[in-house]
Amino acid sequence: MLLDTASLYFRAYFGVPDSLRSPQGEPVNAVRGLLDFVSRLVQDHGPDHLVACMDADWRPQWRVDLIPTYKTHRVAEAAQDGEEEVPDTLAPQVPVIEQVLDALGIARIGVPGYEADDVIGTLATRATGPVQIVTGDRDLFQLVDDARGVQVIYPVKGVGNAEVINEAFLREKYGVTGAEYADMAALRGDPSDGLPGVKGIGEKTAAQLIREYGDLAGIRAAAADPLSKLTPARRKNILEGAPYLDVAPTVVRVATDVPLPDFDPALPKEPLDPMALEELSARWGLGTSLTRLLETLAAAR
C-alpha cells in the first residue's frame, strides 16, 4: 500500500474539525486525521507493506522548465522561494506527521527533485505483487493496471468511503485504460496543475480520439495527415498545440525510475521508537487516534 501522504493530510486537515488541539492549544486535526486514515486503511485492506510517499519537491524544476505554468497558482504569493501555499495551521503539523510516522516505523520516502507521485510510480512499477495506491489525485489513475494488480483507492468523503479504481472503472467513467489515461490528461489539460491542454479538446473528445487513433502519437500523426478524418478545426488545434504536446507527456506522466533510498516497507507490528512516540503523543495530544492505530497495527496479520 502506497500513501500519497500530502493528499491525505490535506484531506484530513479540511475534513477534521480544528477543534482537535494539542495540550498547548495548537491544531492537530491533520495529524490525528491522518492517523485515523491509516488505521482504517490497514483495517479494511490488510496490507503487508505500507509506504508513506512524500513530496520532497512538490514542483520539480524539470517539470517547470518544460511547462513554466506548472502549478504556478499554488505558489504562495508572499513566498520568494517557490514554496507551496499551505494553510497557516497545517504547515506546523507536517513535521509532526513526519516524526510520528518515523517513530511508528512506517516507511517514509521522499526524493529530492521528485514529487510523491513519482515515488509512487517507481514503487508501483517495481512491485512484484498487487499494489494499492491511496490518493485523492486523479493523476495517479495512469498507474492502474489490472494485469499487474495495481489499483487506486480514491477517498470520496473519507478513506472508509472510497472508490476502488480499476480498469473497468476507468473505461466506464473516462473511456480509457490506465495506460491511456496520461495521454487523455495531456490532451485535456488540467487548470489545477497549470496545464493548458489542447484548445477545444475536453475529456470526452480526448478519450474518443484515443479510441480512434490509439494514443497521442497516433492522434498527432492523424493531424499531420491531410487524408485523415479529423475535422479541420480539430486538426488545426492539434497542430497548433504541437509545442505543448511535445513536452506535456513528460510532465503529466509520473516518473518510474526515481533513485530510491534503502527502506523497510514491512507493516510495523510495534513502534520503532516507543519512547519518542510516547513523547510526541503527550506533547501533541494524539490520544485515541494514536492508540487506535497502535492496536490496529498489533492486530494486523
Features:
301 residues, six-stranded mixed sheet, alpha/beta, exonuclease, 13 helices
Largest sheet: 6 strands, mixed
Structural class: alpha/beta
What kind of oligomer do you see? single chain
Q: Report strand order across the widest sheet.
A: 3-2-1-4-5-6
Termini separation:
15 Å
Please write the string of helix (H) and strand (E) elements.
Answer: EHHEHHEHEEEHHHHHHHH
Average of pLDDT: 94
Identify the overall geometry: elongated
Separate helix tally: 13
Work out the radius of gyration.
21 Å
- Strand runs, count: 6
Contiguous low-pLDDT stretches (5 residues minimum) are none
Beta-strand residue fraction = 5-15%
Helix content: 40-55%
Structural features, described:
Helix 1 (5-15) crosses helix 2, helix 2 (29-45) packs parallel to helix 4 and helix 4 (93-104) runs antiparallel to helix 12. The radius of gyration is 21 Å and the shape is elongated. Helices cover 46% and strands 9% of the residues. The chain is of the alpha/beta class. The protein has helices at residues 5-15, 29-45, 61-66, 93-104, 116-126, 167-173, 178-188, 203-213, 216-224, 232-240, 242-252, 274-284, 287-299; strands spanning 2-4, 51-53, 107-109, 131-134, 150-158, 161-165. It is built from 13 helices and 6 strands.
How is the topology of this model organized?
Layout: E1 2-4, H1 5-15, H2 29-45, E2 51-53, H3 61-66, H4 93-104, E3 107-109, H5 116-126, E4 131-134, E5 150-158, E6 161-165, H6 167-173, H7 178-188, H8 203-213, H9 216-224, H10 232-240, H11 242-252, H12 274-284, H13 287-299
Parallel strand pairs: 1-2, 1-4, 2-3, 4-5
Antiparallel strand pairs: 5-6
